[in-house]
Amino acid sequence: MRHRHLFSALCVCGASVGGGQAAPAPADLIVTNARIHTVDDSRPFAEAMAIRGGRVLFVGSSRGALAARGPQTRVLDGGGAAIIPGIADAHVHLLSLGLALRTVDLVGTKSLDEVVARIAAKARDLPAGTWITGNGWDQNDWADTRMPSHETLSRAVPNHPVLVSRVDGHAALANMAALRLAGITTQTPDPQGGRIERGTGREATGVLVDNATGLVGRKIPGTTRDDVRDATLAAMREANRYGLTSVHDAGVGAPVIDVYEELARAGQFSLRTYVMIQSDDSTLARYFRRGPQVALYDGHLWIRAIKIVADGALGSRGAALLDPYSDAPSTSGIVVVPQARILDVAVRALRNGFQLNVHAIGDRGNRIVLDAFEAALKQVPTSDHRFRVEHAQILHHDDIPRFAELDVIPSMQATHQTSDMYWAPNRLGYARTLGAYAWRSLLSTGVIIPNGTDFPVEAVNPFFTFHASVARQDSDNWPAGGWFPQERMTRDEALKSMTLWPAVAGFQERDMGSLAAGKFADFVILDRDIMTVAPELLAGTQVVATYLAGRPVYERK
Prior knowledge:
Number of strands: 24
Number of domains: 4
CATH class of the largest domain: Alpha Beta
Strand order of the largest sheet: 8-15-16-18-19-20-21
Radius of gyration: 24 Å
Structural class: alpha/beta
CATH superfamily of the largest domain: Metal-dependent hydrolases
CATH architecture of the largest domain: Alpha-Beta Barrel
């Protein structure tokens, strides 16, 4: 679709004012001739909107919007394009994305040999002894779906320590140089909440699961403050390119938050970021003393939530299951943080006015978290706590209604389903798969589902998310009819899950999530209407422009 007049600006004269009354301040920007999906139930569709001071002044007809024009008002002809509110991703790792843009990208690799080739190519450009990191390999995409071993990598890259993360971030592959630096031998015990994968003689295979990755990770030189700053700016540019104006950043430490505040104070923060702080005691003490922080720096930072990781991931068999894995009966996953710790932090969060968001993937992990939440709410009764379970991927049928009963929000990522569907039934068996990625079952109980990507675990592209939500298919439109299609969302639900529902999940709904008078003027212009095009065209949607507070932060060339 072509929009020849999309970015034409017209300078027009203001209307005369009768009766001697002073004219209201004119709009800074007026958008006309568009198909605006407002996500506002009082006015679901509009053709125009007026913006002043970074907020929406009016949404409705072109006549009504143009009544607010003045001599300096810019008028943007939408050329009939679809416009939606700024897209929110309710679970991301912003700094990790920025750092990943600087490391070895292993997403989409189809074999261990391809992983090794990409790492070896990077090694040729670096001095011996320099650490090489990367992210994105997934053995389930390979012909040989067994967890890899380090030998091929160690032979190809003997002089650089290597640690590359699996796509879910819950396992990593290290080469022999890295294992030696970490002092990992046949005698090294598994750390609490982690596992060292071993061969027949107890030698480390190089695969480290969950907390075991820290044995090697702590040997990697830390990033500098300048590294954090540059990576954050790069990640924000990447997010804006895909229409994101808001993210919920999971598990952020105080030094990184300090950089965020520095950038936001300087007007260099092009996202509205809802921060979930790390849950160590020193970080909790610092931010509990400060208290919940809302809409800092003209609505760019919120610091009022906490992140805990309860279990591992399904792909690395770290997700905590009630019964053993169907394809590995010797294990039922890993509990990373004990339930008593979750309960303790939940009680302190309630007493200090903070939200608690806990990663839980397996059915046992989810039950542990729901039980902890229930116990905390008995100790500190709170009506509007909005506690969240991050991921909520595998649920026992008895626990699905408990989310609504406890007012707990399941924060989920649709593209986890389309990434995992090829092998998840092997891990779970058919019966447990019925409770996997159960969006419709949860929505039917009355809860909302804020959607996201968990990037860089999944691609940043939110239109993959939208397509997965409504079709339960991958970007190649497989499988026909969708994977367990009874759990699909409607398009209206999917759009809310990427706009309004994340705002609700972050206590931001008065300012964000829909295009309505008084809210931030954050919106995205698309090259097709995702609410009407054929499902097979959804994943190919492109962003024409992304606006934050009525100003473009990305425009397609």
